[in-house]
């Protein structure tokens, strides 16, 4: 928590973490922005939640809490502040609003979307439920509120296997990330199918335990087994970590797979000298800053264009102008809240 600092104290605080990652003149400029944001945050009784993908200067200066989607959902559920500013993407800010109908939730950019959230509509989910009546629906947190409203329960990359197992049913519909679904199917030993939306005569005979959807993360789908082979050929001692939105082949070729926070914890507790994170590149900078003795390799041609919309400048404007307010119809929020709260109750 770095709320009550002078510009010089903020600059020193950021420099202590980021001197090997961000040039000094940029730190001085960003320290001023961060102080003004933190001053307004206190004045307006706001809390700032920052996803692990935030750029290093923002990540190390203004969030009251940082974390993966699951941790930030929990923080959003617990806050007593009047305003939540979400430095992340829209589905995350929506989740905060779903859990806090009486608070103002702000997202600093209207362009912070997500290819997974855009890959499925509420009508798609209804069509699948009609085709497979009675089969419980799990939706990834990377979906919009109207899709969550159609689900029985949500999950994140940090608890997907536990959520599926918590259902205690023979089968489940798991939407919309094809690769996360395939990875969960492999971990749970379940047979997965990817059906169309139209009912077929032979539906009763279909053999499945998970039903998936062909959504993809436009970032993680780009990592390949060949990338891993190339990096290992050059750096035989590298430890490779892959987010579960990567393909099952990539996940299996990596040394570890887990949510963004699980990857951070894995690097912290592993003694190896060199790592590659197959995920948004900015997280490599944040992990490098926290682990000065460890080297982080970067594949920064692969970036999340949505997470990268969130800047200190936009966050300052967000607090100055109360923009952009995240809202949804109450009937959708109420149904979506059931799915999110069921997930949070799993622990
Ligand atoms: P985490 O929940 O693991 O932070 O993932 C969110 C995300 O969007 C990954 O691309
Ligand atoms: Fe969505 Fe992928 Fe970006 Fe995460 S990295 S916000 S899943 S597009």
Give the helix proportion (percent range).
40-55%
Task: Write down the CATH topology of the largest domain.
Answer: Rossmann fold
User: Helical element count?
Assistant: 15
Give the tally of β-strands.
13
Number of domains: 3
> Major beta sheet, specifics?
5 strands, parallel
SSE class: alpha/beta
Radius of gyration, CA atoms, in whole angstroms? 21 Å
Ends: how far apart? 25 Å
Task: Provide structural commentary.
With 347 residues, the protein is α/β, with parallel strands linked by helices. It has three domains: 7-112 and 308-321, Rossmann fold; 117-216, NadA-like (Rossmann fold, 3-Layer(aba) Sandwich); 220-290, Rossmann fold. It is built from 15 helices and 13 strands. The chain has helices spanning 7-18, 24-43, 56-59, 69-78, 90-99, 122-131, 145-148, 160-167, 178-188, 225-234, 248-253, 260-269, 281-290, 312-321, 330-345; strands at 46-51, 65-67, 83-87, 104-106, 137-140, 153-155, 172-175, 192-193, 210-211, 239-242, 256-257, 274-278, 295-297. It has a five-stranded parallel sheet with strand order 6-5-7-9-8, sandwiched between helices. Strands 2-1-3-4 form a four-stranded parallel sheet, with helices on both faces. Strands 11-10-12-13 form a four-stranded parallel sheet. Strand 1 (46-51), helix 3 and strand 2 (65-67) form a beta-alpha-beta unit. Helix 2 runs parallel beside helix 14, helix 4 (69-78) runs parallel beside helix 5 and helix 8 crosses helix 9 (178-188). The two termini are 25 Å apart. The model has no long low-confidence stretch (mean pLDDT 96). It binds 1,3-dihydroxyacetonephosphate and iron/sulfur cluster.
């Amino acid at each position: 928590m770095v709320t009550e600092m002078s510009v010089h104290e903020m600059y020193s605080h950021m420099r202590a973490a980021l001197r090997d990652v961000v040039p000094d003149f940029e730190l001085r400029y960003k320290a001023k922005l961060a102080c003004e944001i933190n001053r307004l945050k206190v004045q307006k009784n706001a809390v700032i939640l920052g996803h692990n993908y935030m750029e290093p200067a923002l990540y190390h200066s203004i969030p009251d809490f940082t974390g993966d989607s699951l941790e930030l959902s929990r923080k959003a559920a617990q806050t007593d502040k009047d305003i939540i500013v979400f430095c992340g993407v829209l589905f995350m800010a929506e989740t905060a609003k779903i859990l806090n109908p009486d608070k103002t939730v702000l997202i600093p950019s209207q362009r912070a979307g997500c290819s997974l959230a855009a890959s499925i509509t509420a009508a798609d989910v209804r069509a699948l439920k009609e085709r497979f009546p009675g089969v419980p629906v799990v939706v990834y947190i990377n979906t919009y509120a109207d899709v969550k409203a159609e689900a029985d329960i949500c999950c994140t990359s940090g608890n997907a296997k536990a959520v599926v197992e918590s259902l205690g049913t023979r089968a489940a519909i798991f939407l919309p990330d094809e690769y996360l679904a395939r990875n969960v199917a492999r971990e749970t030993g379940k047979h997965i199918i990817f059906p169309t939306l139209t009912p077929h005569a032979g539906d009763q005979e279909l053999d499945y335990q998970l039903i998936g959807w062909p959504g993809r993360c436009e970032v993680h789908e780009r990592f390949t087994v060949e990338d891993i082979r190339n990096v290992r050929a050059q750096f035989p001692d590298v430890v490779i970590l892959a987010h579960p939105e990567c393909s099952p082949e990539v996940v299996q070729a990596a040394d570890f797979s887990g949510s963004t926070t699980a990857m951070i914890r894995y690097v912290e507790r592993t003694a190896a000298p060199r790592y590659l994170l197959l995920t948004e590149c900015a997280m490599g900078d944040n992990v490098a800053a926290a682990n000065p003795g460890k080297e982080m390799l970067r594949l920064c041609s692969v970036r999340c264009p949505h997470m990268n919309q969130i800047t200190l400048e936009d966050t300052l404007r967000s607090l100055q102008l109360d923009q952009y307010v995240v809202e949804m119809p109450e009937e959708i929020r109420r149904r979506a809240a059931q799915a999110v709260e069921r997930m949070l109750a799993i622990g």
